[in-house]
Give the backbone structure.
Amino acid sequence: MAARAMVDWDALAARARVARRTKAVVLYAFLIAVSLPIILPYFWLVTIAFSAKTGVADTAVLWRSMAVVIPAVVAFWLVAALAQSRRQLWIGFAAVAAIAIVAFALLVGPDLHLGNFIFLWEPDFASVVRSRIGEVKGAVQFPNVWHAFGNSILIAGAQTAIVVTVASLAAYYLSRFQFPGRSSMLRSLLVLHAFPVLTLIVPMFLMLYWIGLLDTLSGVIIVLVAFELPFAIFIMKGFFDAVPWDIEMSALTDGASRRQAFVSVVLPQVRNGILAIAVFTFIRGWEEYIFVFTFLIRNSNWTMSLYMYWVRDDVMGVDYGVVSAVGVFYLVPSLILYMAAQRYLMQMSIGGVKG
Amino acid sequence: MAKIEFRNVVKRFGAVEVIPDMNLVIEDGEFVALLGPSGCGKSTSLFMLAGIYLPSGGELLFDGHVVNEVEARDRNVGIVFQSYALYPHMSVRDNILFPLRFKKTPRDEALARVKAAAELVRVAELLDRRPSELSGGQQQRVALARALVKEPKLLLLDEPLSNLDASLRLSMRTEIKSLHAQLGVTTVLVTHDQIEATTMADRIICMRAGQIEQVGTPDDLYLKPSSLFVAGFIGSPPINLIAGEAEGGTVTVNGVRFPVEGASGAVTVGLRPEHLRFGNTGFAGRIAQIEPMGREILYVVETGMGVVRVLEQGSSAGHSTGEEVRIGFQPENSLVFETARQKLIAGAHVQAPI
Ligand SMILES: Nc1ncnc2c1ncn2[C@@H]1O[C@H](COP(=O)(O)OP(=O)(O)O)[C@@H](O)[C@H]1O
Ligand SMILES: [Mg+2]
């Protein structure tokens, strides 16, 4: 008993403190190690898009920019690790950001220009770029970039509208009604999503050809909707399952019809789910490449991904700055969408997904 | 206001028959309680009244008209769900306003009625809040206001007090009862808590496994329970049930002999703890445990017939654990049931052994 009473609390506390600190150091070292390779490509893409010049293979500016960004990322995590309060955290972040911006302006600033975004105002930019290095022949006929942009918006937007509508209604029905074959249907929803879509590309091509939708935007939209629906339905079913029956019954006794109850009471409860599948479906349509590459042929039907592909194919060797600029232009809408919807996407798991 | 009638109503879910055959009349303006253990079909009966479930057979009548197939929204029934079922995305005002949206009530009149309903249940100052910002008791009141704002023919309450804490339950009990007295609307309360039923309702319908065991006033159920089930369900602490054999004017239980009138064969004697008294006569036992309940004290007594609970006024204390006691009672307070059929034998009583 006497030995037990002599516990050295200070030593125990010190040991726990060391263990806690070690854990924190390991964690932040890991975060730095994984975040750098993720951040760097995007950072380079943007830097190249705003700095590269036709015919000049200059990598010095990239190294100088890295000299800014790597210390900045490390400093960022150090601040996160060392800050004692929320206030300190924000002050630290602001200080790191300010220093990084100043350093960037000094080291990289003089090289920045907007010339690589020539494709935005010059449809025949390929010829212009080539002529700078004295080469004229062989340029691809590019459509106006805004046309491709519009096509992409149309495909992604229409696909999103259809998927959200159909998935909401189907998932509601699956969540609320018992009917023969309900559970096997649920199971097949997931299995459908497990197939690699590429395996179906030949039959899809033939089907579109026979119904006359090959090389049309609506053909691609139909195919994309078909592939996106199962998963969207599954996600939405999880959200509908989480809505209690009571409030629906309550709406019915309050004088609502089934449809009114659905619209005014049930749908608002699954708003986050609808937003989530809308964002994911839109981005899926926006980045779609394989199907549009296979099913769209005329260049008036090009989407941004095809435009990007042909720019890379045609101009890469001449001016990778323009290629990067197209990449940045292609990236911006997804980025804006993600940032706008981030708050709702974070709540995805709350809606829950269950079978 | 409406008179409600169940005629041979049956409810099945698939192959499961939840309500085999229900017959019941609820008079206009009455306050009745559907009382029974969980899963006995109380909510199912209520939802049939509301029009949420379609009866599988029989007839449901409002004021003499069959309403089996009338849609929920056309029945003008107000219902308070166990979970309150407030619409989480709407303010309290919009929640209470919701039933009026579908009645095409002019906006000014609707808002006036919302205000009146909110004042009736004292939530007028909460109208701009969201349900998630309310306490359980406040949510309950809002649910009541929403049910009452449409001036329903029939008010249905599904376990309205079960999510409240004890003291709030007590005050809501009083409030709901006085609301009923004020409005006179036919009200059906569903509860598994016998105290709620006996304190609030004019009449209690005691249910068991989808069947009505007994219908009567709270006094009827307490004083003349028609079956062992009702006797066991009504009263707290629960009635002592002692099974024995009646022969030649005596019930014998493990050697203890109770003189009996009007019964023979296998019987079960029912003695309520509050009717038992310690004294110099009666059957013998030893106090095993003492449970003070404030003004009263519950004694758990071990006897030759098993454990018997005795409720004594706190003032007559002075007993201690391990004490040998004798327990007596007034014969007219005793109940005698036929063990085989579990039914009360009317007029039969036992006397305490001397
Ligand atoms: N929608 C339903 N589908 C299948 N069974 C149900 C349904 N609703 C209730 N039941 C069953 O009916 C029985 C009675 O339920 P209920 O009326 O909710 O009981 P309670 O008296 O507790 O309110 C229970 O056994 C329950 O499992
Ligand atoms: Mg219930």
Remarks:
- The helical segments of chain B are 42-50, 92-101, 107-120, 136-148, 166-183, 194-200, 218-223, 228-233.
- Chain B has eight helices and 22 strands.
